[in-house]
Design brief:
Family: Belongs to the binding-protein-dependent transport system permease family. LivHM subfamily.
Shape: globular
Membrane topology: Multi-pass membrane protein
Structural class: mainly alpha
Organism: Variovorax robiniae
Main location: membrane
Number of strands: 0
Largest sheet: none
Mean pLDDT: 85
Radius of gyration: 19 Å
Strand content: under 5%
CATH topology: ABC transporter involved in vitamin B12 uptake, BtuC
Protein name: Branched-chain amino acid ABC transporter permease
Helix content: over 70%
Amino acid sequence: MDALLHQIFSGLATGCIYGSIGLALVMIYQATHHINFAQGEIATFSTFIAWSLLQKGWPYWVVFVVTVALSFTGGLAIQRLIVRPVERAPVLTNVIVFIGLLVIFNSLSGWIFDHTIKAFPSPFAQDSALATRFFSAHELGTVGVMLCVLLGLWAFFRFTPIGLAMRAAAQNPESARLVGIRVSWMLAMGWGLASAIGAVAGMMIAPTVFLDPNMMTGILIYGFAAALLGGIDNPAGAVAGGFIVGVLENLLGAYVIGTELKLTVALLLIVGTLTLFPNGLFGRNVVTRV
């Protein structure tokens, strides 16, 4: 029974990561109606920046804040300089741009920081008071950090004028323009927030899986599964989907298919969701009059 509970709680901890990546994918999807295939590589590059600052002796939480700020700025710059010029281009053009960003950031990570696997420190000591029977200190700390990020985002979008403007720009750009909202800048801020969320997820997952240029490849697939399962147009659904994916991955990997095939859980969830629940568990049905 203890082993089962440990798998469930560990799945909830990793589910926070998957949910945050799913949330970042949903934010980009709401802005562009495309999936950002480069989300994982951008997060990995941000994590490498954090690692390099830690190697210089910077305190962890100072590095954390600086990395999140740099990631936000970088995401905003990507939208203004690369994505904005092709936002009205055909779908295939946007897909090629996203794949190009994936290749570029993956190559930059290997070129600048090399391809050797690196240990990334955890800010939560193993013998700290956070450790419990079912959670390691890092797992519980990860849950706390990611929940703070998610609650902060919810408050930002719910109560601040900029957050409300971003929601309006994502849901109905034409109407938002009519009331004076600068839609293009709101979408750029959405890219910045998605990159910042990815950076936080990368710094939280790196101590568990180690750091290399391909670190987030599998995590992105889990995040994509979470976004689809919860509803690709529903930010809260993506977070809930992350918890479901994390727990299912752990339980099936431990008791059914083995750890070597855990990634197939995400792939099966993607195929099953697209086949049986195209709008996800919490997505909304869209009806178009013809």
